[in-house]
Amino acid sequence: MDEAPLPDAARVGPFFALRTGSGDPEAEGYARIGEAYRLTGAGAAGPVLRARVEAVAASLRTDEPRVAASLVFQGLAARVWSLALGPAALSGGVPHLRPDRLWWNPGRVAPDDLWWPGAPSVMGEPGGLAGPVGTAAIVHLVPLHQAIERAYRVSGRLLWGNSASALVGSLRVLHDWCRARGLDEAADRAVELARAQLDHPPLRDAGTLSTAPLGYRRRTCCLYYRVPGGGLCGDCVLREAPGRGTPG
Predict the structure, then answer these.
(1) Is there a contact between 70 and 162 (Cβ–Cβ < 8 Å)?
(2) What's the rounded Cα separation, in Å, for the pair 208 and 225?
(3) Which of 20, 209, 3 is nearest to 87 (CA)?
């Protein structure tokens, strides 16, 4: 098994880093991340996902679980997109982070939230890196999307907008980091890899990417404006926040 090209990407920032190495994740309070994508027989969130949504709700002081769930999805989407996009742009490989082997601690923050004991394998594809980048993220985002849409009644279209927004957020950080260090080829590769994801389902209709300067305008709202003291994100479809009593 080849070692995943993660060390270079980890230099970009904590969202691009992954804990690896030996140890006992379960003993340290981690669960296999695939458990977060499972619902109870009644269609409610399982304990791993519920714990994360409740923690985010408490942190943001919101009494609306669906708002917290929307932001949980966006945060985890940013993590998996970063872990795929960073190594692809910088090292030409994509780690294959299978949900049944990647461990998650919903009470920790990046980079200690995700742990792959040992070294993940690297995906390669003769046709290029866009396919592996999409695969690395989508194997997490599709089941998480289904779980949150059902358990918390969050719009599926809104959640794919969150995914697109998270991808572009990761792209901006990586692109600026590369440009600041003269890694123009890697910066350009990151843009093209992100564009490839945005040009195809499920992100194709989520918004519009611009590159001069790098920016994005989504077609949905993540509901952050409903958080006490929250506002509109820079890529939001809304021009002004509705009243808090207005359904999002």
Answers:
(1) yes
(2) 21
(3) 3
